[in-house]
Amino acid sequence: MPKDFLALADFSTESLRELVTLAHDVKRNPRAYQNACAGQTLAMIFQKPSLRTRVSFQTGIFQLGGQGIYLGPTDIQLHRGETIADTAAVLSRYVDGIMARVFGHADVLELANNASVPVINGLSDYNHPCQVLADLQTVSEKFGTLEGLKFAYIGDGNNMAHSIMLGCAKVGMNVAIAHPEGYAPLARVVTETQAIATASGSGVQITEDPYQAVAQADVVYTDVWASMGQEDEAQERLKRFEGFEITTDLMAAAKSSAIFMHCLPAHRGEEVAAAVIDGPQSVVFDQAENRLHAQKAIMISLMGTKH
Ligand code: CP
Ligand code: NVA
What we know:
9 strands; Rossmann fold; alpha/beta; 12 helices; 2 domains; binds phosphoric acid mono(formamide)ester
């Protein structure tokens, strides 16, 4: 197991499966883990807003017998020019783990390289591995397996798309991405996903046709069209993403047993119709709940006193 949780690609298929199994166990039997991080402190650095990540990490470390300290954008000295390296070195003298939500992915890498304690990536412009670990837990709960399922992501080739591609390929799921022209996932992530998928025997499909992506899909997933930090592109993106909304018609083009997923926060009437996200195929609140269990599994594995 690596020291840090920065990207799903850093983990072997085996260790990802172990984390999902541990997340299931933590959910079923939380009391068994109530002292797993006894007396430990998690520093939680947030350079962007958050509902799920903030509350699930703070609650999660508390339920493991430890405590979380929220450090918002203006709470620490980073915004006044203290370096990331110094911040990492100082925090490592006080706390047992650091969770960070940052703009540039290089910032979380620098934090990890300069911290002697584990660093957990709570979202960067490049990826969102905690979300996708919880999503794998959710899919495995709903279908009893991961391998061989088809996972279709419709929308921006963003941080969510990157973690979904790498996570699905690692666990042997077939992944299809449908994005508008000009909003493809990074080419190097496509190449890396293809290499992992070849090794795990799964398929990768990148298309600009949402109907092609959802054909035979078990999971239909979307995310906001303008991510945090892209607010001034929102109007332009509304036009460019036309035809990429998950409507009841698009959902009906997937398998009848398909589930609808969204990392949240969602915009009804933009990337997803209210009838879909509030309808019977939607599992979005199970996903949100599983952030708590999956992140407890991460903290137990990286910081836990016994596991
Ligand atoms: N899905 C997710 O990470 O939500 P928050 O931005 O609210 O943490
Ligand atoms: N792509 C979104 C994910 C939010 C959880 C963003 O970065 O804002």
